[in-house]
Amino acid sequence: MQSLDQTSPTEPLSVAFIHPDLGIGGAERLIVDAAAGLRKKGHHVRIYTSHHDPRHCFEETRDGTLDVQVLGDWMPRTVAGKGYIVFAILRNLWLSVLLLLSHNQFHQPYDVIVVDQLSISIPLLRWTGSKILFYCHFPDKLLTKRESALKRLYRMPVDYLEELTTRMSDEILVNSKFTRQVFKDSFRSIQRVPKVLYPSIHLESYDKQVDETDPSVAMLKSPKKTFVSINRFERKKNVGLAIRAFAQLAERYASDFANLRLVVAGGYDKRSIENREHHLELDRLAQELGLSTATVFPGEVQDVGDAQVLFLLSFNEAQRTFLLASSFGLLYTPSNEHFGIVPVEAMYGRLPVVAVNNGGPTESILHEKTGFLCESDPAAFATAMVQILRGQPLSRDVLGQQGRAHAQARFSLDTFVNQLEGYVVELKTATNSEALWTSASFWVLMLLCLAVPGYFLGRR
Fold this sequence. Notes:
Elements: E1 14-19, H1 26-40, E2 44-49, E3 68-70, H2 84-102, E4 112-116, H3 122-125, E5 131-136, H4 149-167, E6 171-174, H5 177-186, E7 195-196, H6 215-218, E8 225-230, H7 240-252, E9 260-266, H8 273-288, E10 293-296, E11 309-313, H9 317-326, E12 329-332, H10 342-348, E13 353-356, H11 361-364, E14 371-374, H12 378-390, H13 396-410, H14 413-429, H15 433-458
Parallel strand pairs: 1-2, 1-4, 2-3, 4-5, 5-6, 6-7, 8-9, 8-12, 9-11, 10-11, 12-13, 13-14
Helix pairs in contact: 1-14, 7-12, 10-13
């Protein structure tokens, strides 16, 4: 396997990444790893984003490892908490316009532009002459609820544009076979079959020693056996399932329940109304189930006491290292998750994983070898947790060792970056007739939309 410290055998390419909000999450981790990996191989890399907060980001994006350009952050994300997708589109388009105007892309275009999550900017970016690679974590049209007629009405053109602009990319990658099937079912007009590029983890960053002198780590130390849930504080992540399953251990594992603890950790952005509301909802749920709770907000260090459920909002890297090294198992609760990098991180950290038996985790977790795949039900999760606690059918240590070996073999950063580099190099000289035809048709349609009304107005 080629080391990332070696330069690429191919001529260095210039590659740009476009990502809407460079915060902390699985999608952001993938982009950071991809950009850093290509840079180590000698390629010229830059990330463009509409928002980057040095207090809420991955280390590589603030320590100079990666060149990050923020364009158009003045534009709001919502108005009164509404219109998220509309403003996401506007911010993405404005970013692309500024990129075109301020970075001389018509004369010295990037060889490849990797567009992440939002495809709406692809028609503009094609004017640069760069090849466009679109990475689809999941179709956006499936990520929103349509509770009202107005919401359904305004989503119709948004959904149409998503499919049309995605079809204009030269290459399409997805994060799992599950996502590829959903993509094909959702975008029936796109004839190409997307290629699968599994996310990875940077193994070396997970081999750090626990720093017990760090105050933010010291406050987490406990003699209790700890299960951990790592997810953003979003309702779709179904973290309540972990809390309900943990509460069932009061009966299922009554003899030693007092020596158990659940840490609910994950991305928390104070700008997000949902993050703030959902944390309170989960705290309320735990207390209704008779569990004592404590919350540590970002940057805080405090005495968490004897809390049975600890909410750790936007943990730092030292805390992550501690949780992966000291916990007894990971509870991964989302259903139909596109891929889910957290189970891979946990397996590399020798943690058995309990996850829902659908979506991406079915491609990363080996049932009863590296963890357990269960129905999305508290009783099923609780049963798996008891199996881990009792070492049946395999001990926690055996599950952990097998998980680490599996993560090393299939989800290393070397594997990910080597595969990505192959796609990028191949794309530089490739021609995609579907993308070219769709792009030409799109701009003809746009010109007609402007020219026909202008013609009739001019005759008045």
